[in-house]
Amino acid sequence: MFKEFIQGLSITLKHLSPKHITTVQYPRVRLQVSDRFRGLHRLVPTQDREKCVACYLCPTVCPAKCITVESAENEKGEKYPKVYQIDMLRCIFCGYCVEACPVEAIEMSGQYELANYKREQFIFDKKRLLETK
């Protein structure tokens, strides 16, 4: 019984040592997220426009119904999204939109800092989604 007590106390003391830090000093030190982390959405650009072909699969598969797409055609007859919006306040970051996209036009970045002061700033349009890194 005394042996188990000493083992438990040694674990506690090991966690109290200065080299065993569990808290990250957030604004100065950023967390390293894993490759599988589902953060902010990003539209993938090509040479002249975004890769999206406005197939409507992402808003169809979205369980939160936070994606809005309106299509148009260019002079070559190719479909593209005239309007592409994601309401980040409704999004649950499930990643279904990324899985459903047949041309891999949308991906989820490792960006996790999404704080804003106004609700309107959480509606990400096509231009803002193309700028995301």
Fill in the keyword field for this structure.
133 residues, alpha+beta, Alpha-Beta Plaits, single chain
Gist of the model:
The protein is of the alpha+beta class. The chain has a single domain, classed as 2-Layer Sandwich (Alpha-Beta Plaits), CATH 3.30.70.
Mean pLDDT: 91
Terminal CA distance: 56 Å
- Give the helix/strand class: alpha+beta
Strand order of the largest sheet: 2-3-5
* Strand segment count: 5
Indicate the radius of gyration in whole angstroms. Answer: 22 Å
Overall tally of structural domains: 1
Oligomer: single chain
The proportion of residues forming helix, as a percent range, comes to 10-25%
* Proper CATH architecture: 2-Layer Sandwich
Could you name the CATH class? Alpha Beta
Could you please say which CATH topology applies here? Alpha-Beta Plaits
Shape descriptor: elongated
Give the SSE order as H and E letters: HEHEEHEEH
Enumerate the spans where pLDDT stays under 50 for 5 or more consecutive residues: none
Explain what this protein looks like in three dimensions.
23% of the residues lie in helices and 18% in strands. The mean pLDDT is 91. It is elongated and about 80 Å long. It starts with a helix and ends with a helix. The chain has 133 residues and is of the alpha+beta class. Strand 2 (67-73) and strand 3 form a beta hairpin. The strands form 2 sheets. A 3-stranded antiparallel β-sheet has the order 2-3-5. The protein has helices at 2-16, 57-61, 96-100, 126-131, and strands at residues 41-43, 67-73, 79-87, 106-108, 123-124. The protein has a single domain (24-131), classed as Alpha-Beta Plaits (2-Layer Sandwich). The protein contains 4 helices and 5 strands; from the N terminus they run H-E-H-E-E-H-E-E-H.
